[in-house]
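Hi F.,

I've been meaning to write this up properly since the lab meeting, where we talked about keeping a consistent format for the predictions we share between groups. The idea is simple: the sequence comes first, exactly as it goes in, then the C-alpha cells exactly as they come out, then a line or two of notes. No screenshots and no reformatting. I'm using this chain as the first example so we have something concrete to point to.
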Amino acid sequence: MDDFKWYVMYTTSRAEKKVAERLRERGWEVYLPLIEELRQWSDRKKKVERALFNGYVFVKTNRNKLWECLQVPGAVKFVHFSGHHATVREEELELIQRILATGVGVETDGSEIAPGEKVKVLGGPLQDLVGECIEKGNKDYFLIRIPGIYQNMLVQIPRKFLQVVENAPSK
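Output, unedited:
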C-alpha cells in the first residue's frame, strides 16, 4: 500500500477555500495556506483572506485515492512534473506555516530566481531559518524555495537581520 503524502491539487480560479472545505468535509487532511490582505472598495476597506499560492491546495492522501479527491466540485487536477505527481514534504509545509504564523509580509513568485547568497536569519520569529538573499526592486528578500510546486516564498527581512552562511572551506 502507498504511503500517505502531501499531493498538490490545482483548483478552479478562486475556489481554493471551497475545495479545501469540501475535502475536509469528506475526511481528507488538507492544508491551504492563507494570507490576509486589506482590499479597498470604493466605499470601504475590508480584510480578506486569500490563498498564498493561487489555485493550489495540499491534500494528504495516497496515490490510489487521488481520483476520489478530484470528485470534489472545483478540483481540476493534481499537479504533475515530468510524469510524476508533485508532492510536498511535511517540513516544507511546516516552514510555510511557521512563516505565515509570524505575520511578516510574504509574496510568492513562480519565476526562476537565480540563487543568491545563502543566509541565516539572526533574530525575530524566523530566527535560524536558512535560505537565500535576493534583491528585487531595490529591496532585500529572504527567499525560501518550495520545490514541490516550483514556487518561491519571498519574505522581506532587512539585510541587517541576515547573516551570510559560509560554505565549509574546501581542502
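Notes:
Residues 65 and 160 are 47 Å apart (CA to CA).
The two ends are 46 Å apart (CA to CA).

If this format works for you, I'll send the rest the same way.

G.
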